[in-house]
Design brief:
The structure holds three protein chains of three kinds.
Chain A (H helix, E strand, L loop, with lengths): L5 E6 L4 H4 L2 H10 L5 E5 L5 H12 L5 E6 L15 E6 L15 H20 L15 E5 L3 H12 L3 E5 L30 H9 L4 E4 L2 E9 L2 E8 L4 E6 L1 E4 L3 E3 L16 E3 H11 L15 E5 L19 H15 L4 E6 L8 H10 L3 E13 L2 E8 L4 E7 L1 E4 L3 E3 L65 E3 L9 H24 L14 E2 L9 H5 L5 E3 L5 E3 L9 H5 L5 E2 L5 H10 L12 E6 L3 H10 L8 E6 L7 H9 L4 E6 L13 H9 L2 H7 L7 E5 L5 H18 L7
Helix pairs in contact in A: 2-4, 4-13, 5-6, 5-10, 7-8, 8-9, 13-15, 14-18
Chain B lengths: L14 H9 L14 H5 L10 H9 L3 H5 L12 H5 L6 H15 L7 H16 L4 H9 L4 H20 L19 H18 L9
Chain C lengths: L3 E6 L11 H14 L1 E5 L17 H18 L5 E3 L2 H16 L1 H11 L12 E3 H9 L1 H6 L9 E4 L21 H8 L3 E2 L14 H4 L1 H17 L4 E4 L2 H9 L1 H8 L7 E3 H8 L17 H8 L2
Parallel strand pairs in C: 1-2, 1-3, 3-4, 5-6, 5-7, 7-8
Classes of the chains: A alpha/beta, B mainly alpha, C alpha/beta.
């Protein structure tokens, strides 16, 4: 490691120069921070300011930079320098914008700024500039698991972007369920009539594309490696297995239709004239535009009833608790099969909440114009009687029990994800406390990817068996870097959404394999060059890092030491927070780089009545919330010192105990929402931190300290007022319970 | 079928909807309702309707012909047009309510004692006879629409209002004397136009079985 | 400005010794100041209003309105048809719009009109007097004629239903139209902000047939005006004006209220602000006297 040469640059712009004594800050950086070079500049982010920093770097005078100016979230383009470690002392959003501009406030405000200078220099001293760890070249080929609409679209998208793709399809033909439809719901204007599926053309395009190879009747027996270099064993029907190398994987394994035999009350299995939506597609294909016939006697259907939400959006045992999204539009489409052939056929759609996403509203209207009747009601049972079906329902608008006689009943059942093995499943007897709605969905489970990861053979499921990491914030990303879910395996969806999904997942796959080749993080810290390493001699092989990694990035070797798979890693630092012996670190983010900042703060003695509150704030939500509080000039206590962390999951409890031992009066942790509706950017980081901090009370009691001194909060990026209020609340608490006894 | 009304079985066939589409003003819109209920919530007399518009639309689809056409509900429409401007489907609800009432009236199914029905008939009668409406005549007639005895009571109750109108010259006490109130000159023209229009409309009315669909 | 001429459809309420005769008086005064000439449609007939549907079905009602428009088209095809009454405007405008849009209805209507030797071609626009004031004059021009600003009067702008829905005044919202408030300001008075019942229904024609239910609505309309600190209510509709003004004694009896809220037309305000006498503004025809306006009108 080269000699540490710190350059500290103090900006006087944006009012910093007027509000603070920057000469004093310069002295602190030089004397206490041991900065080799300290410069003040009127506007540091200006060309001349940036140039002055670059000149020092180029001259070899500095290799650690402390920028004492605005928040690290501001002016990131200007303050980007190669081959140096950079620390940001937040004098603007962190100090002058949250403090009153008064004579009385001056002393404490200046103290705040002084500490941030000390912290910046301490951090810089303990960081090394990260450099790319290029293990090998990447493979520019995408493996696509599943040859339905999602897989076909993904393969073509990859090819169009200049990448090779291989489709592995379990069955003997391409096209999936989409190929079994008579028509699809419209995906082009004017959204009024069913349209051709277009699947045959898509299959032809795939087959004639030189970038795409297709493997039918094939399964995956083993997947190992990491983004850029996955090694995949593909077994074909003949029994032969070959190993191919891929840069990224798209899982497009789709869905299995819900088993309608579980709905005897709706007549399924009791009469052949009760079918599910796929059954109706079959009848429609047989009719091919002519009158659709009843399965029982082959007579023309004159009165058809569609039952929405059959066995779904239901809390009943064995039903699906969720909405499958496409079924209302599908029933409208199927009612049109009848109306378009013969307007005299009565078609009634029984719904409780009609949901027609996308351009479905136009389609819904078109259905109404064609005379499809929509009745809001709950179907109680369907009873076959003398060759007709008696559909008994409660009309929810007219509030009465009624019955409709139908020749044919179509049940709109749901989609069950083909997501493989649920690696987080708990044994049935341990599941007594399972929440209603999370009822077990039993499907024959074979692993799809057969990952040889330590954490299990398939991807973690988010909810209801679907493979994803967050439905809204990070679609496709899953919890396994380099493997992307698209289509109904990710969440229930229709064909229009599938096409978007396939394109999105393909782009993510390309991003991952390209970044892997450059030794950089794929997402969400896209482009990050830092990477965790561990000190082997200190490791106790406790496996906490491998277990707690939210992304399955860490395997174990035969001696149970961790093996970090660089390109699977998302650089959150949850492993670093987990390590009880603190041997895991990143070049520019480590137990020391934060710990030394905590130590660098000047702790006044107990007689000066100046408490110190340490805030460890997640850089994704809580820290920007505090920045925005500053932009709104919301004032908070001058006794607080805020350190941004990559994720609350990276917080090692040693920081908390060291701070308390060192005389801090309080520690506040601010992370993202955890739990079922989590907003944590690293899925489980905030959850892990809350869990770890739940055990801190014992430590506090051993230290004979009040447990109120340490608080962990979930703070959203929108909690602008709350974030600063939480700080002030803690200041009030300290005021009430008194200073820490550990002041020296 | 114990607890279910057997007679309701065929209700959900679409006959009445077709009748409404063919014969009721703007009736072809009835099928476009999406049951959001904004109309019902926006109606100034909403709480007084046995079946608010949302329900009327559902009843039409449920083939409840007699119940719809004999309902007092549509007669409570004040023509405020709130439902129309708020309907997300832009259904001309006010017109359909008027159309249903008017259709019920033509078929003789409208509730006989409904006051707005009586008032409306007098109003139209006034137009047919004179070309214009004379409020004073209408007011006096209206008081007596439930018979002489009731009329005297109503007139007594309304007397202060009438007196105020008279005092401010906004009421014509001599309106009942035909040559003292203003009428259209070409009354026979108007009558001929109305007669012809009714003829044309009758000719295009679709006959639906009197059996009630 | 040059004299502006319009074909005028006054409607039944505007006739002498009818409820809206006061509206006519003030409109005439206002038009005199603005140099507007209203050419009454010869031998016009009733529009059918909101209860016409009971006796008259679709085509007879359209034909009834089309007769007025056909006559107007014969007399001055180059002039717009203007109505002051909400129902007349709505009936005439709806007829025009529907017939222009629907060739079949137009054909049938003309077949009926032919009985009287008339033919309608939907050549003219049908407009409300308020639209004429806003579009052909504008608030600035309307203000230019103010001689006696209505200082110190606070007025609730009650827009009601049919001037607002389903057509409404161009550029205004259904839920919170602003033009009456702007008129009030233009005449130098103070509008009630956030008048809760601005576009609520007064019962309309059903005030005759359903008095109890209608008076409950009217009570809320007046109460909200008091809540807003109003001295009086202004409205563009003769039915609103009548309903909200004349039943206040009965409402007071039934609900133990002490309402005494004058209800005037926008034209009343304009006539007074333009310096016309109390008689020319028809202030004497108020059942509940608008004392402040009388004072201003009485000033030299």
């Amino acid at each position: 490691m080269s000699e540490v040469k710190i350059g500290a640059y103090i900006c006087k712009g944006c009012g910093i120069g007027e509000r603070l004594d920057t000469d004093q800050l310069e002295q602190i950086a030089a004397r206490e921070g041991k900065a080799a070079i300290v410069r003040q500049h009127e506007f540091l982010c200006s060309t001349s300011g940036v140039q002055s920093i670059q000149n020092d770097i180029s001259a070899g005078d500095v290799n650690r930079i402390v920028i004492a100016a605005c928040s690290r979230r501001a002016k990131t383009e200007a303050f980007r320098f190669e081959n140096v470690a950079i620390s940001r002392a937040n004098l603007r959003e962190g100090v002058i914008w949250v403090r009153p501009d008064t004579e009385e406030a001056l002393e404490l405000t200046q103290e705040m700024a002084g500490d941030y200078l000390r912290m910046g220099c301490a951090e810089a001293k303990h960081m090394t500039p990260p450099s790319p760890h290029v293990e090998s070249t990447t493979t520019r080929e995408v493996l696509i698991v599943g040859g339905g609409l999602t897989g076909l679209t993904a393969a073509l998208e990859a090819s169009k972007a200049g990448y090779r793709a291989t489709i592995v399809e379990k069955s003997g033909e391409l096209g999936g369920w989409a190929a079994k439809l008579y028509r699809r719901t419209p995906h082009r204007s004017p959204y009024t009539d069913p349209q051709e599926t277009g699947i045959a053309d898509l299959i032809a395009a795939v087959q004639s594309d030189a970038n795409i190879s297709v493997q039918l009747d094939a399964t995956i027996t083993r997947t190992s490696g990491s983004p850029g270099r996955f090694f995949v064993d593909i077994a074909t029907e003949s029994g032969a297995t070959r190993t191919d190398r891929f840069g990224a994987i798209i899982q497009a394994t789709g869905f299995t239709p819900f088993d309608a035999n579980k709905l005897p009350e709706l007549g399924f299995g009791k009469s052949p004239d009760v079918v599910d939506q796929l059954g109706l597609e079959r009848l429609a294909r047989e009719a091919n535009g002519g009158p659709i016939k009843r399965p029982s006697d082959g007579k023309d259907v004159r009165n058809v009833v569609f039952v929405q939400c059959a066995g779904q959006r239901s809390q009943s045992e064995g039903h699906l608790p969720y909405c499958s999204g496409h079924c209302c539009n599908t029933s409208i489409k199927q009612a049109m099969y009848f109306k378009d052939a013969n307007p005299g056929v009565d078609t009634t759609i029984l719904y409780t909440d009609l949901r027609s996403p996308g351009n479905g509203e136009d389609f819904y209207r078109s259905g109404q114009k064609k005379g499809v009747i929509f009745t809001k009601g709950v179907v109680k049972e369907v009873v076959p009687e003398n060759g007709v079906l008696d559909v008994r329902l409660k009309d929810l608008i007219l509030d009465e029990d009624v019955a409709i006689r139908a020749d044919l009943v179509v049940l709109a059942t749901g989609m069950v994800a083909n997501s493989g093995v649920n690696i987080d499943a708990v044994p049935l007897d341990a599941d007594k406390d399972a929440k209603p709605g999370e009822a077990h969905i039993e499907i024959p489970i074979e692993s799809i990817l057969n990952l040889d990861y330590r954490q299990g053979p398939d991807m973690p499921q988010l909810r209801h068996g679907f493979n994803d990491s967050h439905f809204i914030c990070f679609p496709y990303e899953t919890q396994r870097t380099g493997i992307y879910a698209a289509g109904p395996v990710r969440r229930p969806m229709d064909m229009v959404q599938v096409v978007d999904d396939a394109a999105g997942a393909t782009l993510k796959a390309i991003q991952a394999l390209e970044n892997a080749g450059l030794g950089r993080a794929a997402h969400p810290r896209s482009g990050d060059l830092s990477f965790p390493s561990f000190r082997r001699e200190g490791c106790t092989q406790c496996k906490r890092c491998t277990v707690e990694c939210p992304f399955g990035a860490i395997d174990e070797d035969e001696k149970r030491y961790p093996i970090f798979n660089e390109s699977r890693c998302r650089r959150c630092g949850t492993c670093m927070g987990a390590c009880p012996v603190r041997v895991i670190s990143f070049e520019n983010y480590s137990v020391d780089s934060v710990g030394q900042q905590i130590k660098a703060v000047d702790i006044p003695d107990e007689f000066s009545e100046k408490p110190r509150i340490l805030v460890l704030a997640c850089e994704n939500d809580a820290y920007p919330a505090l920045d925005m509080a500053a932009m709104n000039r919301l004032e908070y206590s001058a006794f607080v010192r805020v350190i941004p962390v990559r994720c609350l999951g990276s917080v090692n409890t040693i920081w908390v105990t060291d701070a308390l031992n060192g005389g801090y009066d309080s520690v506040v942790l601010m992370g993202c929402q955890k739990g079922e509706n989590y907003q944590c950017h690293f899925v489980k980081g905030s959850e892990m931190a809350h869990y770890r901090m739940s055990k801190i009370d014992d430590t506090l009691q051993q230290l004979q300290m009040e447990t109120e001194r340490v608080c962990t909060y979930e703070v959203a990026i929108t909690d602008i007022h709350r974030a600063s209020q939480l700080i002030n609340d803690m200041a009030a608490t300290i005021d009430r319970i008194g200073l820490s006894p550990f002041k020296f | 079928m114990d607890d279910l009304n057997l007679a309701m079985r065929d209700r959900y066939r679409n006959n009445f909807l077709q009748e409404v589409e063919a014969n009721v003003e703007e009736g072809e819109w009835a099928k476009m309702c999406m049951q959001c209920g904004v109309c019902s919530g926006s109606c100034p007399f909403g709480p007084h309707w046995d079946h608010p518009p949302q329900e009327i639309f559902m009843m039409i689809r449920a083939n409840k012909r007699e119940e719809v056409l004999s309902s007092t509900s549509m007669w409570l429409c004040t023509s405020c047009y709130n439902c129309i401007v708020r309907c997300p489907r832009e259904i001309p609800i006010t017109h359909i309510m008027h159309g249903l009432a008017s259709y019920a009236q033509r078929l003789g199914l409208a509730p006989k004692e409904q006051p707005t029905r009586k008032f409306g008939l007098m109003f139209w009668d006034n137009i047919e006879k004179n070309g214009r409406v004379n409020e004073s005549i209408l007011g006096i007639k209206l008081y007596f629409m439930n018979g002489f005895k009731e009329g005297v009571k109503t007139a007594y109750k309304m007397a202060p209002v009438g007196w105020n109108m008279l005092r401010t010259k906004r009421f014509n006490p001599f309106a009942l004397i035909p040559f003292l109130h203003k009428r259209c000159k070409k009354r026979s023209d108007i009558q001929a136009i109305l007669r012809k229009a009714q003829q044309i409309e009758n000719a295009r009315t679709v006959r639906f079985g009197t059996a009630g669909g | 400005m040059v004299k502006k001429e319009y074909m005028f459809y006054p409607g039944c309420t505007a006739e002498s010794l009818a409820s809206g005769s006061n509206y006519m008086t003030s409109v005439e005064s206002m038009c005199e100041v603005l140099d507007i000439q209203l050419n009454e449609i010869p031998d016009w007939n009733c529009c059918g209003a909101s209860v016409g549907y009971v006796g008259g079905s679709e085509l007879p009602r359209l034909a009834l309105n089309a007769r007025n428009l056909a006559i107007a088209e014969q007399v001055h095809p180059e002039q717009d048809v203007v109505a002051t009454c909400a129902a007349c405007w709505l009936g005439a405008r709806e007829t025009r719009d529907r017939l222009e849009e629907d060739n079949e209805l137009m054909r049938e209507t003309n077949e009926a009109l032919a009985e009287a030797g008339l033919k309608y071609e939907a050549k003219q626009k049908v407009r409300h007097m308020v639209e004429v004031l806003i579009e052909d004059f504008g608030y600035e021009e309307l203000q230019r004629h103010v001689k006696k600003p209505l200082d110190g009067v606070k007025i609730a702008g009650y827009v009601g239903c049919q001037t607002n829905r389903p057509f409404g005044i161009e550029g205004e919202s259904f839920e919170n139209p602003k033009y009456l408030d702007k008129f009030v300001e233009t005449m130098g008075a103070e509008p009630v902000e956030k008048y809760d019942k601005k576009v609520s229904c007064c019962g309309g024609g059903l005030a005759f047939s359903e008095p109890e239910k209608s008076q409950a609505l009217i009570k809320d309309i007046i109460e909200a005006a008091y809540d807003g600190g109003a001295d009086m209510i202004v409205t563009p509709c003769p039915v609103c004006q009548m309903n909200v003004e004349i039943y206040q004694d009965q409402i007071n009896q039934k609900y133990q209220t002490k309402f005494k809220m004058p209800v005037v037309y926008y034209s009343t305000l304009m006539a007074v602000a333009y310096g016309k006498s109390a008689k020319q503004a028809a202030l004497g025809t108020q059942i509940i006297r608008a004392k402040q306006l009388e004072d201003i009108a009485g000033r030299k």
